[in-house]
Amino acid sequence: LTESSIVCLSDLEEYNNYTVMIRANNGAGEGDPASIIVLTLEAVPDTPPQNVTTDSLNSTAIQVCFYPPPPVNQNGLITSFNVFYIGDPFQNQSQTVDVPVSPMVYPLSTMLCVILTNLEEFNSYAITVEAVNSIGNGPESDGVIEETDQAAPSAPPQNFTAVSGPAISLTYMPPPPIDQNGVLTSFFIEYFGVDRDTTMRNITVPSSPLSHTITGLDEDTTYMLRIRASTVIGFGPFSDFESATTQEAPPSSPPINITVTVINATAFNSTWRVPDEDEHNGLLLSVEIRLEGIGIDTRITIRVPITTNDTSLQNTILSPLQEYVNYSVSFSVRNGAGLSPYSDPIFLRTEPAAPSDTPQN
Question: Is the pTM here over 0.70, yes or no?
Answer without folding.
Answer: no
